[in-house]
Amino acid sequence: MIALFLRDLALAIRAGGGFGLGLAFFLIVVVLVPFGVGPERGILAAIAPGILWVGALLACLLSLDRIFALDFEDGSLDLLATAPIPLEGVVAMKAAAHWVTTGLPLTLAAPVLGLLLHLEPAAYGWLVLSLALGTPALSMIGTFGAALTVGLRRGGLLLSLLVLPLYVPTLIFGAEAVARGAAGQANATPLLMLAGITLATLALLPFAAAAAIRINLR
Amino acid sequence: MDLTVQDLACARGGLPVLEGVSFTLRPGRALMLRGPNGIGKTTLLRTLAGLQPALSGTISAPPEAMAYAAHADGLKPTLSVEENLRFWARVFGQRDIARALDEFNLTELAHRPAQNLSAGQKRRLGLARLLVTGRPIWVLDEPTVSLDAASVALFGAAVAQHLRMGGSALIATHIHLGFEAVELDLTPFRARPRAMDRFDEAFA
Questions:
Q1: Is A78 in Cβ contact with B93 (below 8 Å)?
Q2: What ipTM describes this predicted complex?
Q3: What is the pLDDT averaged over residues B80-90?
Q4: Among A95, A202, B34, B167, which has the highest number of CB atoms less than 10 A from its own CB?
Q5: Cα–Cα distance measured from residue B152 to residue A204, given in angstroms and rounded to the nearest whole number
Q6: In chain B, what residues touch A84 (CB-CB under 8 Å)?
């Protein structure tokens, strides 16, 4: 299983692997927002937690359809399904590799981009913490969506429609945790809810995704 | 390990294509599946490999005993020949890839990215994967597509070597591979269209 994780990382980093796509998109969104809403400090600071979370979420969404589609097209998925690794393990490793190449860079880049949006100084720590807690859930839910749509031609649209509603709770609690942190209020509850969502998706969705792949390979 | 298939029926896209398939494959033997296009050779092989459930019938060997190779080779274009093969070796818990590279004459290409290989070279790399699975029953779907005569000979030698070491092979192919093998024509097993008893079955 480690081999699969390392292979996916190597594929993402090499030419055409899509590493940096999500990061570039996140950068573009956050840079464009001040042009759209105006450079006024108060407004930007008020919407910064939401914009940063929405940007991270959409950036995550961009690379989802690659998770299984390429492996399906070149036959790797058939071979992985007949390999001694359980398919649940394959799904978990795919999600982990997606998080390391997408969620983790987004989490690390977010504070720098927060600067462009006049994010309150108190909120930087909460921003990184909430993204670190929440982006694994985005990767896992996205992997589940990719498993459901694997084998469909142009499944990207369906994938987005399936996944976006599932992303909403993560977005609400993530942005809320940062906003409360910025206002100096207690934000333990949204952070705990965020951690709970992530743990629940990590525990349940590998099994659901593996079952979806088995059906799609028939 | 013996592979005994009894009264197997399998379906493609929800429609039965084969029924009543029975054969026994013993260690050291190869079985060639013959039959016209669309008869269900690929469907049968995918069913045996555990990628889809059988409609009815029994398969004695578990999917874990089989190494499956299909039309697609499962290669990553940006990884080198050696990296592709080493990945599959690690997935199957094996270490040695030198023999596989050597038997399929890939040693000189080891560091070339798979995207720069010709179709035949890719096919050879896909077949070399079989050697690093360490599994006794090879289940191969049209393994000689895009191979030239010399490569077919290499492949035939690799299968013969596998059979000598106590393995077995089930191969769907249209050509002769140069070693002794039993042939099984699937034409008599074509599934008869069934009358639908109930309206709902049309959507099952």
A1: no
A2: 0.86
A3: 91
A4: A95
A5: 46
A6: 64, 91-93
